């Protein structure tokens, strides 16, 4: 996908072409290790924490389950004090249990999520407490490998557009969607390049 995407994006937008030439080869790749449930559990745990702090809490929680991520049923059955002792806040624990409940009762059909279109995946995910549109879009991009996701609420994408296009102020979500329209159907790769531009 990425070679075709880069060729199409360079043709579609001269500004993005300059970004691509500056950043270099595309190294975007979805994460395939673990289950979809593991990926969402990790996404919730890492919200609003530094990577290092979140990784420590995640490792401690995994220790409680024998060095691996729990199954939804195991997370629901785990005693709250043990997970709180691992560093999981009460609010995050509520989010994680809500995720586990949605998966366990089939409301969030992770086993067939690949067959759903992007909007249906977002709709199913945002029904879980603690999972917003941005987290759902990251799941689409970095777990399911969907090629045409533009996270319009993402600060990095907004800053990347501001820098690339020489805008005086940060573009809002509607501006991001408008500016990014020519990048379809490869807006995931375009977003990756905008993030790398800021590195």
Quick structural gist:
The chain contains twelve helices and no strands.
How much β-strand is present in the residues? under 5%
Largest beta sheet, briefly?
A: none
Briefly, what CATH class of the largest domain? Mainly Alpha
Beta strands, count? 0
**Oligomerization state:** single chain
Tell me what you see in this structure.
The relative contact order is 0.15. The model has no long low-confidence stretch (mean pLDDT 95). The protein is an all-alpha fold. It has helices at 2-12, 14-23, 36-46, 51-64, 72-77, 80-85, 90-104, 118-126, 133-142, 155-165, 173-180, 187-197. It has 2 domains: 2-29 and 149-197, Endonuclease Iii, domain 2 (Orthogonal Bundle), CATH 1.10.1670.40; 36-142, Hypothetical protein, domain 2 (Endonuclease III, domain 1), CATH 1.10.340. The two termini are 23 Å apart.
Task: Give the SSE layout.
Blueprint: H1 2-12, H2 14-23, H3 36-46, H4 51-64, H5 72-77, H6 80-85, H7 90-104, H8 118-126, H9 133-142, H10 155-165, H11 173-180, H12 187-197
What labels would you give this structure?
199 residues, mainly alpha, Endonuclease Iii, domain 2, Endonuclease III, domain 1, 2 domains, 61% helix
